[in-house]
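Checked the freezer inventory, then went back to the computational side. Two predictions to log before the end of the day. The first one is the construct we discussed on Monday; recording sequence and tokens without edits.
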Amino acid sequence: MDTLVEFKTTYNTDICELYIFETHQTSHNVSLRFDNLTFTSMIQGKKLVKVGDKTPVFSYLPGSSVLVAPGEEMLIDFPEADAQPSQCMALSINEDYLADILYTQNVRQQKINDGSRWYIEPDVFVVTNNTGLAGATNNILRIMMEDSLYKDQLVDLAMKELVIRLMHSQAQELVRQGHVRGRFAELLQYIRNNLHEKLKIDMLARLAHLSKSNFYKLFKQELGISPNDFILKERIRRAKQLLLQYKNISEVAFQTGFSDTNYFIKIFKRMVGTTPKTYQMQQSREVASCAG
């Protein structure tokens, strides 16, 4: 690492280094580089970040993580640090150790799909911290910061979980962006085009030319999410779009494959945190506010 931020705490093991950065003063164009692949995650506050030549400046907030390639520059602004200090973790992973994890995973836990391998996707460097990834991140933070006779063994186990969770999160991000490659690309498009229909796993497995059991395993292995969960997320994503068109709740439920409006409302509230009607009203107010 070439450049330091105001306050840095470091925790070391043979396989990784953990840095906790805290910034209490508004600053701009702070440069960071790491020697190894580094997994970063916001804990609190806000940054404006540019990662090498990959992106324009984007807001980096809690709930997201960013992968930084070896030697790649992060340019960071801290626009609100005077009022709200920024805190971020950076986990730099030993190159040989990471290669060993991936090799072992490919040998012992081979993917069902021939020719498909476990790897870190270099082009998917911003991921959302889903429940699994957030849990793995918190776990390795806790272990790295504690004083234990078994620290090295615990870090090893926690790091392997983090890497696997990260690969699954990258797969889900590719799905969200519509950049899935291979045998599932057309199938996912089929699902998105037919959300108003009953989408049975047996039928989807036949379209993928797989047995039902292999389809389920391969889908989750490749995309980091089960077929049923993917379909449900896509139904809710589409429902949110339709609600913005001021369609009534029953019509939205029908067009997204829910035969029972009450069940649709229940699932929508569980996944979005509010009812469809409330969501529709909130979005309508936001649109009116922007227009005004």
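The second is the one RB wanted added to the comparison set:
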Amino acid sequence: MSPKKPRRVLKLVLTLLTVGIVILGIRAWQVVAPVLGWSIPSFDTEAPLLPPNLEDAPLAVLHFSRTAGFRHEEAIPAATASLEAIARRNGWALYSTENGAVFNAADLARFDVIFGNNITGPNWDEAQKSAFIEWVEDGGGFVGVHGAAGTRYRYWDWYTDTLLGGARFIGHPVSPHLSDARVVVENPQHITVAHFGPSFRHEDEWYSFEASARAAGSHVLATLDEATYTPGEDLAMGADHPIIWIACPGSGRSFYSALGHTAATYARPDHERMLEEAIRWAADRDAPCP
């Protein structure tokens, strides 16, 4: 055998290995980069055509579920089904989209509430951000669930610090990923959580935050009892671990609940009632906030 032949075979093997490593690296990057906020964002530029009869309903909800980061494949459709049931029951107009270009002054003016269904990543360009801010602070209502606070702090300070009232997410337990824990209702008089009673048990992926939303001026409705699950040393927030709260950005109002990683959450009648009351509360521009 020629001495050159083993070298050619070795060179071919090394080339194939290099190509394989590059392909695996690209695929890993496509999965990990959006979660870590390293991907180059892309934005929608052409607004969708809205239904003509939104104003005929007593309340119009813009249901937004765009994800430029991690996507909750199980939770998003379950939350959608819950929201659709709520809208049918009340005769509300519901428009669902993942097109961020709907965030313009003319289109947002046709809605009473924006429902953020596990939205993650950089979903808006600068003009869309400005329209969102103006709409909310002029009296619009926002309701966000779970992943709506899951990664956003890396992209837009107004969203986390003002709209979501200090929801700077830092992580959740990994092992076990889901845990049953006790949620303590701190404000049983508020319409969104009054039906839960003093406390309730729930299994979820429990979010932790850099600091309590209370410190940012939010009004806490329910906290997580860390004695009933294991957050881990790096994720422990102690006695003040808000999990449901409201904020008052400008003349608007915002409701956020960290519940909702799994589809089972949205099948709970008491959870669906919370979302229904949250939308109703967020839409009430005449009532004081909180």
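For RB: The first strand starts at residue 60 and ends at 64. The chain has a mean pLDDT of 91. Let me know if you want it refolded.
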